C-alpha cells in the first residue's frame, strides 16, 4: 500500500475499503477522563479507556464527545487511529465503538457489554469521536451552529478536536496518526486529512500532526458514482427487476445537480424495494424490533431518498437498537462522563445515509485514472479468499468478501487483518 | 403459478428456481426393493424407502438406479416428485438425496446419516434417479452407449425409466406427477417433460403419465444466456476486475457456435478467478479437503471450461466428498441394493458443469417474451424476504435470497416453502 515515507492512500468498501496515505503520540492520559468501567462490562480482560469532551469552539460552546481505548499491548509503541462514522449524523460510539470494532460491544437487548476478540485496539490506540456536533453526546451551546454543518465546518471542528485532544494526551503528539471511518465519513475522513496535511505545512501557525494515511470503508463519494453503483448493484443482486433498471438507465442522469421527476420516481421505487430488506447487508435478516426506525420509508421520501435508518449486519440485525437502549441508561452515561442534558441520545440523527455498494467505489476509483501499481488479485485469510485488492499509486482498493456495510461487524477477523496490513504497510497474503 | 388444470411452468435459479406446469399414486411397493435401513442411519424417525434398478433398455443392458422415499405422512394423498441432478454426470443420490433435499443426508466425513428436517418428502413422494447411464450406480452393458449421451438419448432412457418404475409401483400410475432438478437438469427436466407430454397424446402406443408441471433450479439453458450472465455476475459480485469484464464484452460473442481464441482466453481467466472460491456459492468457504477435485483447474481447460467439480454450499463445504466416502462403503451399497461391480462410485462423472447465476436465468426468461401475469415482487418466509418472484403466462421465475447453486441445501426452509407452493399451486406469501 505504498511506501511508508510518502503520502499514500487506501479505501475499503462494502465488501470494500480504501486507504489513502497522506502524511502523522498516547501513553499517559488525562486522569479525569479515565473510565473505571461501564455497567455490565465483563470483568476480564482489563480495558484501559478514557472518555469525555473536548471543546472545539470556546465562543459558541461547541464540544465533541470521545471514547478512547489504549492499545491492548505496548500502547506506547502503537499508532493512534481515529475512527469516524458517517450518516451524516450517526454516532461513532453506537456503531464503530459499540457495534463494530471497539473492544466493548453491546450485547442483545442492550443489557450487557461483551469483549470483542477482533477489536482494533489490538493494533492501535483507538479513538472514537461523535462528530459533528448534534451527533450523540456531542453538543453546541449555539443552536444556529446546527444549520451550518457542511463538510468544511465539520472538518474544522474535527481538526480542532485533534489539536486539543493531543494537548490533553501529549504523549501522542508525535505518534503515527491514521484516520479511518465508513459511509459518509468517506467525506469526513479525506477532508480532515487534507486539512491536517495543509496545516502541517504552516508550522508557525499550527501544531504538527503526524498523519500517515487514511482508510475509508464503503465511502460515500458523490451522487454520480454512488447512485449509478446502487442501480447496478440492486439489479445484479436481484433486488430490482429488469424493467426498473432499464428505466433508470433511460431517465436518470446522476451527474445532474437536480434529478428529473422521472428519475426521482425510479430512485424512490428502488428504495421501496430495499425497504423490505436490510440495504446495508442484503442477505442478512432485517431487524424486526418495533422501533422508531420503522419510519424509514417516509423519511427517505422527505429527504431526497437519502436517509435509511437501520444499519444492520452481523449476527443480530438489531444491534443498533441495542446500542441505543444501552447508551440511554443514566448509569452508562455517567460512567463515560457523558452529558445528555435530559435529551434522549440517538444513534443516528442526520439526514443522509444509504448503502454504498462496491460497484460505486469502483466507479469512483476508476474515474481517478491513477497509475496501476499491481493488478486485481485475491487476498487470503484463514485459508480462504478474504476479498480482492488492486493497488494504484497512492491508493489501494480492497474488498472484503461477504461483508455488508459494517465490515468490522460482518467480517471482524478479515477486517482486523486488513487493518494490520494497512498500519504495518505489509501486503495482504496472496495465497492460502 | 397458473391454474392447476392447464399446462403450467415454474423455474427457480441460484438464488432462483423456475417452474413450468405442463400437464398430470405410492402406497404399496415392490417389496424386493424395500430398504430396511442404511448403515449409521438414525433410529428415528422411521423412513419408508426403496432402492434398486429399473431396466431402460433390455437389449443393451441399460439400467438406472433409483432411491425412493415415501411421503412422511399420507403418502397415498401426496403427489410423486422426480428429482434429477445435472452435471452432466452428477449423481442425484450424492447431491439431491444425500446432500440437499432428501430425508437422509450424509454427515461430516461420511460417517453417518442425519435426518433432514426440511426434507421434501414432507410434501411429496420423492424419487431420485441417477441419470444418465454411467452416472453413479446406473450402468450399461454396452459401453458404446456411453458415447451417445445426448439430451434426446437421456430423455428416452428417463422416459422408459418412468414407465417401467410405474409398472413396479402401480399405485402411482394415476398420481399427480412433477419433475424437478437443477443445473444441467435444466436440459434433462424440460426434455423429459416434453417427451411425456407428447406421448401422452398417443395413448394407443404409450401409457399415460399424469404430469402436472416441472421445476428447475439454477438451470443451464444455453451458452449465450449462461455465459453472458456468468460475466455480468462475476463482475457485479467483485470476482473479476473491470478490465477483464470489459474485454469479455469486446471479444466474446457467446451466440457463436465456436468462440474466438480471444474469448476463450477471457473465459479461461474468469474461471481461473473462480478457482479460488466456490463458484457455486461465492460467499461460502471453499472445501479444502485434499481430494480428486483439486484437478479442477486443469480439467476445465481440457473441456472448454465447462467442468468444475466441487459443488459446494451449505454449512460444511465438503459435503460432496462426504457423500463420496459414504456411498463407496460396501455395506452402504449393499443396503441400497446397488451394484458397483468393483468400480469406485463417483458423485460426478460428466464433463459439463458451471454455476448458473440468476442473471443467466433472467436473460433466458426475458428472451422468451412471455406475457406478464404478475410483476416482480418479494415473497416472504419466516418474517423475512425469502426472495423475489415474477409470474408469466405458463412460467414463474422465483429467486431464493442468499442461496448458492444447491438451493435446498443452502436455504432448506425457504426451498421447502417454495416446493409447497409449487405443488399446491398456492401463492407464496407477499407479506411478512
From TrEMBL, chains A, B:
Keywords assigned by UniProt, alphabetized: Carboxypeptidase, Disulfide bond, Glycoprotein, Hydrolase, Protease, Secreted, Signal
PROSITE patterns for this protein: CARBOXYPEPT_SER_HIS, CARBOXYPEPT_SER_SER
UniProt-listed InterPro entries: AB_hydrolase_fold, Peptidase_S10, Ser_caboxypep_his_AS, Ser_caboxypep_ser_AS
Signal peptide as annotated in the record: 1-28
GO molecular function, one term: serine-type carboxypeptidase activity
BP GO terms, sorted: proteolysis
Location(s), subcellular: Secreted
Enzyme superclass (EC): hydrolase
Enzyme Commission number(s) from the entry: 3.4.16.-
GO cellular component, one term: extracellular region
Family per record: Belongs to the peptidase S10 family.
Protein name (database record): Carboxypeptidase
Organism listed in the record: Hibiscus syriacus (Rose of Sharon)
Origin organism lineage: Eukaryota, Viridiplantae, Streptophyta, Embryophyta, Tracheophyta
